[in-house]
Write a structure and sequence with these properties.
Two copies of one chain form a homodimer.
Chain A (H helix, E strand, L loop, with lengths): L6 E6 L5 H11 L3 E3 L3 E2 L14 E2 L2 H9 L3 E7 L2 E6 H9 L3 E5 L2 H10 L4 E6 L3 H10 L5 H15 L7 E4 L3 H15 L7 H18 L1
Parallel strand pairs in A: 1-7, 1-8, 2-7, 3-4, 8-9
Antiparallel strand pairs in A: 3-6, 5-6
Chain lengths: ~210, ~210
């Protein structure tokens, strides 16, 4: 059975390990492509253009909006963020599932426009573990950590909008679990109208032959 | 993560290979138990009591109904058919998923009473293949085969009530796919309220500590 590509939206608390997980997923399995968002904000230290984001000017971004070049986009803190359409469309047509690592508002916009998108929420095994990981990074002040935990608290209120939760305990196990969840989601009845209609038509034809 | 047992309802066309598939599934994976239905109809040649069905008298069946001994039951062609509750409850409490191989009406009654039940519909790769398999059995007359195909045509109308379709092409592959679908269904957001609530509570506690 050839599988058609689907949009896979991945959200989750900062510190849940989404980035590492997604990189490991696309490295291990050929079925997935990772979409890179476009933004007008300045790159931070260590961020690479075309990997972290496509960094563009406000004019370039607005030009793309005019050309309907985004699956979804939004403006936060005076900066634009969006999912470029052309890359996603190309990958979907190749039968690849395209992973969009975006936050909840973006996730909701995608689900509205593409109801068959698969929405995943990545969580650490516990709140304590989330705090431990954030502290363990050793790169952020207590204030920033508290801010992230407070943001996680807000984000947690939106989990019901997602289809599946993924507990990121061990990376290896979690990568296989992600693959299995996405693969299984492809088997949902509502994502298989074509196959179901085809077998219905065939069975009806047999009925006619009998008569 | 300890997984709680769920009810797994499996339906599908006669000739789709449900029986063989379910046997292979419980043999390969420890996570599943197969429920055996109870009936008042006479055993057919080759049917074994306690394997194909539990064969009981009408009095025994009605006694069980009075004692609320069935998850669901129905009467067809003057015979009762039902899913005994005690075995299912015991297996669920052990953390096993219990597989109920029942037809669509039973499936709907289960879904009504147990909304977290996972409903699977097993299909052959095509209508043609279904006919080929039914003819290939070599045990049934053309009339019976036509009857089964006509029944399949009716059953196909109910597929939208199920959660997932399972294409039974190669047995080995299909068994693993079944396992993967059921395992993934356990990760649905709506089957994980407890975990989600727990992490929410934890995150809220952190907020209070900050203040």
């Amino acid at each position: 059975m050839n599988r058609r590509g689907e949009l896979v939206v991945v959200s989750g608390f900062s510190g849940a390990g989404k980035g590492t997980l997604m990189k490991a997923l696309v490295q291990k399995y050929d079925d997935y492509s990772l979409s890179v968002s476009m933004t007008t904000r300045q790159p931070r230290i260590g961020e690479v253009d075309g990997q972290s984001y496509f960094f563009v000017s406000r004019e370039e971004f607005e030009e793309q909006i005019k050309e309907d070049g985004f699956l979804e986009y939004a403006c936060y803190c005076e900066n634009y963020y969006g999912t470029p359409r052309s890359y996603v469309d190309r990958q979907l047509s190749l039968g690849k599932d395209v992973i969009l690592e975006i936050e909840i508002q973006g996730a909701m916009r995608i689900k509205d426009k593409y109801p068959s998108a698969i929405l995943l929420f990545v969580m650490p095994p516990s709140g304590k573990e989330l705090r431990r990981r954030l502290i363990g990074r050793g790169t952020e002040s207590i204030e920033i950590i508290d801010k992230r935990l407070s943001r996680a608290c807000e984000e947690a209120e939106g989990i019901e909008a997602y289809d599946y939760i993924v507990i990121n305990d061990k990376l290896e196990t979690c990568v296989d679990e992600l693959d299995s969840i996405i693969r299984s989601a492809h088997k949902s009845v509502f994502r298989n109208h074509e196959i179901i209609d085809k077998i219905r038509t065939e069975l009806r034809e047999f009925q006619k032959e009998e008569k």
